[in-house]
Amino acid sequence: MSLHQRLRAATAAAHENLERSLDWEARVATLDGYRVLLARFRGFHAVYEPAIGAALGDEAFFAPRRRLARLDADLRHLGATSDPDALPGPPAPALADPASAIGALYVLEGSTLGGQMIGRRIAALHGFDAETGCGYYLAHGRRTGAMWAAFRARLDALAEGPDAEAAAIAAAEATFDALRLWLCRMDCTAGVSA
Ligand code: HEM
């Protein structure tokens, strides 16, 4: 099995669990709910992107996959007035090496796949597009397939042996768990104002 296949198999239950717990259709049905959800993602990316960037050490590869600026633009479009840097975030992950970074990035980058469908739904509901309120979800747009293919190629290039693969898988599992806890907490309107 390739590392991608192993990551996919190891996190399939976590993906299903997150998909079930997220309740995204109900949450994005109103602009308030959508803003709160984006603010939670913003807090998560603000903590995970620097950690992934530092451990990966390959900004040319990572830069087009950063989505913090898109989250900020979407929140501004939705009329959020709070300082985005003041939004709460989860605890920082311990990513010690490029393999762990790529495992965590697998989760965030994979979310752009289902995100296309979710983004199209939000865009239709609220009259948004990638420039107006839906930049986070629509993310790579028509380049989604190509970006995912390049990411999978990068995973396969990680052939550094079983320790690196185990680190990538452990980081992906931990990131899925952290994201589910962070997005599905009941008190997650804290720190969000319009
Ligand atoms: C923040 C939440 C989510 C995260 C972190 C996430 C993560 C991922 C990951 C890592 C993959 C790649 C699987 C692979 O290796 O092939 C993936 C694929 C996919 N996800 Fe999600 N996902 C999320 C939410 C959702 C939701 C809510 C849906 C359903 C509406 C969804 C639908 C899909 C679909 C359809 C694919 C496969 C796309 C394809 O193979 O072309 N995801 N997601």
Automatic annotation (TrEMBL):
One matching Pfam family: Heme_oxygenase
Gene3D superfamilies: Heme oxygenase-like
Alphabetical GO biological process terms: heme oxidation
One of the record's GO molecular function terms: heme oxygenase (decyclizing) activity
Name assigned to this protein: Biliverdin-producing heme oxygenase
